[in-house]
Description:
With 133 residues, the protein is an alpha+beta fold. The chain has seven helices and four strands. The longest helix has 14 residues, at 39-52. The two termini are 25 Å apart. 23% of the residues are buried.
Amino acid sequence: xxxxxxxxxxxxxxxxxxxxxxxxxxxxxxxxxxxxxxxxxxxxxxxxxxxxxxxxxxxxxxxxxxxxxxxxxxxxxxxxxxxxxxxxxxxxxxxxxxxxxxxxxxxxxxxxxxxxxxxxxxxxxxxxxxxxx
Length: 133
């Protein structure tokens, strides 16, 4: 089963420095440019996110400003990633002996494929640079 919001991160899609610059403010600009949210709705969500220390994408979906599906598609477009499909998910755990299950669960990451020098992963929050690195 593919969880809404899971994106496939292929390591080659973006360099860490670029993803660091791509935070919530950049996502907000992307959503505006793509006409996914109205300017006043984004401003309200940004204010709530700042006051509550909640992630912007959580506030946007909680307020009903954008659906989880639309947000997942927007994040994939914004970060130049693709949404993981059912066929992408492995039959057995990948790198189970090398990766802490508690960390993967906490960060909502699922390793999909060991590519030698890199690992393809599905993750709920592709903006979490620490988790993906």
